[in-house]
Amino acid sequence: SWRFFSQLRSSPDRSSFGIAFDIDGVILRGRVPIGGSPQALRRLYGDSGNLKIPFLFLTNGGGIPESRRASELSELLGVKILPSQVVQGHTPFKSLLKRFENELIVVTGKGEPALVMSEYGFKKVLSLDEYAAYFDNIDPVSQYKTWTTKQAFNHHSNSKDLFPRYNVFSDRVKATFVVSDPVDWGRDIQVLCDILRSGGGLPMQNNGQQPPLYFAADDLEYQAAFPAERLGMGAFRIALENIFNRIHHSALVYKSFGKPNSFVFKNAETVLRQIKASCHDDNGVGNEEMASLDFKTLYMIGDNPPVDIKGARQAGDPWFPILTRTGVFRGKENHAEFPADLVVDTVEEAVEYILSKEG
Ligand code: G3P
Ligand code: MG
Q1: For residue 233, what is the enclosing H or E element?
Q2: Ligand 1: nearest atom to the Cα of 233
Q3: Can you state the angle between helices 233-247 and 185-197, rounded to 10 degrees?
Q4: Could you give the CA distance from residue 19 to residue 56 in angstroms, rounded to a whole number?
Q5: Is pLDDT at 15 greater than 60 in this prediction?
Q6: Hey, what CATH topology would domain 91-256 get?
Q7: Weakest mean pLDDT among 101-115, 145-159, 198-212, 277-291
Q8: Between β-strands 3-4 and 255-256, what pairing exists: parallel, antiparallel or unpaired?
C-alpha cells in the first residue's frame, strides 16, 4: 500500500510530468530486472511502441558509453531505450571537454572507461591499466594477480610503442578521472597517489601541484546482485583520500559528480524536456501543444536515501522523490534523515501510483 508523506499536488495535465529511474536497486540487481521493472516501463509506451511518457534513467553507475548502455537496457527490459534516455554518473564529464580535450588524462574504473572518455571527445586518454604498464614494478604485488598479469605482460615487452601518441615520460598528466567503480583498489590507489603527488609528472617525483581528480559519483554503498549493500565509489574515494593525506603534505583536492548534486537533477530536467519534445513529434501532436515543455512534477524513483532522495529533495521544485524497498533502503516506514514524498515496495507500484494520480 502507498504511504503519503506530503500533500498531493493538484492534478496537472497529462503531459506535464516525467520520470527519472535509478537503475541499481530499482530497475536491476546486477543484470536481473527487479520490482516488475519491465512491466512498469512498458506502461510508458503507446500501442504503437512510441514513447508516451517522458522518462530517463538517472544512475550513478557507468563504465560503458551511453549508447551501449541503452542497447543493454533495451535487451534486458524489453523496451526501446534511446541513448539520450541514459544519464550515467560520468555523463557530465563531457562538460570538462573544453578544458582537457587535448591534454593527457588518466582514467580508471570497471568496463571501458577510456572508451567512454574518447567518445565524449577527449583526445589523449590513457586508462590507468595502460599508464601503469609503462612502469615496471609500479604495482609490487602484480605477479600475484593472475587476472591482470596477462594484459600487463603484453604491454611490458615494448610499452613505449604501444601508445605512440602519448609519451608519459614527457607529457604531464593534466587530470585523472574515476569513471566507474575501480576494479583493483590497491593498484589504483597506489598509481593515483603516484600521479597526484608528482603533479602529473613521473611517479618517482613527489612534488608538484596536484592535477584535478574527478569522481563520477560518491556513493558509499549501492545495491548490486549480492543481497547486502556493496561498497561503492564513495568508499574508494574515502580510502584514497585517507591514504593520500597521510603520505602527502597537502590534502587531496577532488570533485564528485553524480547524484545527489543538484546540477544532475537540473540537467535531467533539461534532458527530459528534450525527450518530451520528441514524444510530441512521434505522437503527431501539434506545435501549440508543445508550447510548454515545462513539467509540473518530475518523479525520481530511487532506492538510496542519501543519494536519490536527498538529491531530488535538494533540487526542489518540480522534483517528487519516491523511495522503493528493492535496494539499499529496506525500512518499514519512511527514511528518517532523507524522507521521500512516497515510499513503495517496488518500481511497479511507483509507476502505478504515478499513472493513476496523473490520470
Ligand atoms: O555503481 C553503481 C552505483 O553506484 C549506483 O547506481 O543506478 O543506483 O544510481 P544507481
Ligand atoms: Mg540505486
Answers
A1: helix 233-247
A2: 4
A3: 50
A4: 7
A5: no
A6: Rossmann fold (3.40.50)
A7: 145-159
A8: unpaired
Separation between Cα atoms, residue 106 and residue 118, nearest integer Å: 12
Give the closest residue (by CA) to ligand 1 atom 8: 24
Ligand 1 first shell, C-beta below 6 A: 22-25, 59-61, 181, 217, 219, 222, 232-233, 304
Rounded to two decimals, what is the model's pTM? Answer: 0.91
CB atoms within 10 A of CB 97: 14
Closest CA to 79 of 46, 105, 108: 46
According to DSSP, the residues that pair with 299 across neighbouring strands are 19, 320
Distance CA 317, CA 2 (A): 22
User: Of 65, 67, 71, 72, which is closest to residue 30 (Cα–Cα)?
Assistant: 72
Here the cell at position 24 is 541499481
328-343 pLDDT, tens digit each: 999 999 999 999 999 9
Residue ranges, comma separated, of all CATH 3.40.50.1000 domains in the chain are: 3-89+259-358, 91-256
Q: Which residue bears the cell 583498489? A: 185
Q: Identify which of 21, 22, 24, 304 to mutate to test ligand 1's pocket (most ligand atoms within 8 A of the CB).
A: 24
Interface ipTM above 0.95:
yes
Cis amide prior to 260 (ω within 30 degrees): yes
Domain 3-89+259-358 has what CATH class? alpha beta
What atom in ligand 1 is closest to the CA of residue 27? 7
* Ligand 1 geometric centre to CA of 44 (Å): 23
| 275 contacts: CB under 8 Å, gap ≥ 6 | 18, 51, 54, 55, 56, 82, 84, 85
User: From atom 3 of ligand 1, which residue's Cα is the shortest distance away?
Assistant: 61
- Residue 336 phi/psi, 5-degree rounding, is -70, -45
Q: Nearest 5°: phi and psi at 298?
A: -120, 120
Residue 259 pLDDT greater than 90, yes or no: yes
At residue 100, what is the residue type? F
Which of 27, 57, 60, 77 is the pocket-test mutation for ligand 1 (most atoms within 8 Å of CB)? Answer: 60
